[in-house]
Every structure is written in C-alpha cells, then in structure tokens.
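Pilot study result, target chain (311 residues):
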Amino acid sequence: MTETFHIEKQTLDSSSQVEISKDEYYEGQRARALAWHAIYMEEKFDLFMRNLIAFERALIDIALNQALSSDHTSYSIRDGLAQINLQIVNLLSTGRLYVDQSEHHYSKMAMLANLDPTALQSAKSSEYDSSFGYRVSEALRNHVQHFGLPVHKASFEAKNMEQTNTSRQRYSVSPYISKTELEKNPKFKKAILAELQAGNDGYDLKLILRAYATSLGQVHESYREITCESVSDARVSLTGFVQKFPGDELDLSRKSISLALIHRQGSEINESGKVLLDLTPIDRHDTLQRKNCHITNIEAKYISTEITSDA
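Predicted structure:
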C-alpha cells in the first residue's frame, strides 16, 4: 500500500495540498509534540503566578479594609482569615501541580530533543536544598491536603510612622504558621519540624511563600534556558510548513489555523497521525513568557502605596 504525506487545508471548500517527504512529516510530528509540551509548561507556571498575585492582592485588600472601614468585628476578622487561607491553599496546590506535572512535560521534551533527562529535577533539588521557604511550603502543602488549614494566627497591624512633619499610620496583615500547631499533625515531616526553631512559634507566611515563589521561578528559568534552543527550532520547523503552503504570508498564525500534516495509506487518512499546524498556541507560549518574565528573586520585592515624601 502506497504511503503519501502532504500539507493540507482542513476546510470543505479546499482540496489544496502540498506534498512533503516522510522525514519532513515525522519532523513536523516531533516539532508539534515538543511545542505543545512547552506551551503546557508555561500555562502551568502561569497558574502558579496568578495565585501568587491573588494571595498578595488579598493581603492588600484586607489591610485597605482595615484602614478605611469600621467593620472590625470578630466575623470580619474570621472572614479575612478565610480569604487568606483560600489564597494560600490555591497557591500551594498550583505550586505542587507545577512541580509534579513539569517533570512529565520536561521528560517528553528531553526525549524529543535529546536533552539531559535529569536537568530539571537537578534544578528542583538544588532549590529545595537551598531554600527554607521551599521546604516548608512543600511540607505545608501536604499538611493542608491531609490535616488542617495553613494559617494558625495573623496580625492586623496599624502602626504610627513618624516622619519629618507628618504622622501617618501604616496598615498591614501578616499570616503565620505555628510549630506548636504543626506538631499536632503526626504525619508532618519531622525534618521540617526540626528546622523550625522551638523558641519561635510564629513564622510569617509572606516570607515563606515569597521564598517558595522565588525558588519555583528559578526552576522555571532554568527550564527555559535548557529548552530555549529546542523550542525555537520547533517553532521554526512548524512555521516552515505553513510557509510552504500557498496563501497569505503576512499573517502566518491566521493562515495556519486550518492546516495540517496528513499521512495517507492508499486513499485512507491516518487520523491518529494528523498533525495540526495551528501556530496560535505557540503565540500564547511567547505571550506567557513575556508576561512572567520577572520570576526570580521574588522574595526581595514587596508592593506598597506608602507616601515616601511630604512634597
């Protein structure tokens, strides 16, 4: 049975096709698979970053409400704690999702592009070993899934800030974990409990979670460096197929939406071997990379609307 390979437009009003070789077809299949794993990596890291922003925004909203509202009842305080717990649970969950699922996507990319299969795990291990915040956050994620909530207490502070000619008040919110509370969980990782100082029963989760975000940001930056050339080559390969097909050369993404690589055996199309050439997901990959570009040293950054001068 004769095998043929083509680039074809998948619309009812078109029978246009461009013949390609078997090797070109399999190269397109490889490039497409690699590109999709790269897209998934960026999307899953973006989920984590969205939840980091939501956590930080929740703290700002609570502090703003504290400063401008008279509703300081025990109910409103408990509601604020619930909001913080919600955001931390989401952040820890998507952090774990990224840690676990990135290994799957990277292992596939390593096979497709002949990369070091241990490189990403090495980057994770290095960050885990060097970051107290990473280690505590991973243990806290397990605690949240199986035992209890992450926030054990919180401070709602209003502090007078004396400046040259003006007295101002600064409002802030700080959620804490307690070693005493964590010890109630018989399955909480003993090595992490040993790291928590016995005399310090309150650890600010802002510091811990920002350090965790810094570590995952560094892991993701390492992933990008490792795979940058391979992902770029896959993009060039897929774009090349789109350019082979006659039509609009000014908007390749739009042109690519209906194109596919087709493998025929005789007159029958191998449906499971169809390779869609749509470039718009690759455009999204690039957009997410640009969006999440400031992902290292997150723990050194904080957001403030404080007035810094009397002018």
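One observation from the pilot: DSSP finds nine helices and eight strands in the chain. A full batch analysis is planned for the follow-on phase.
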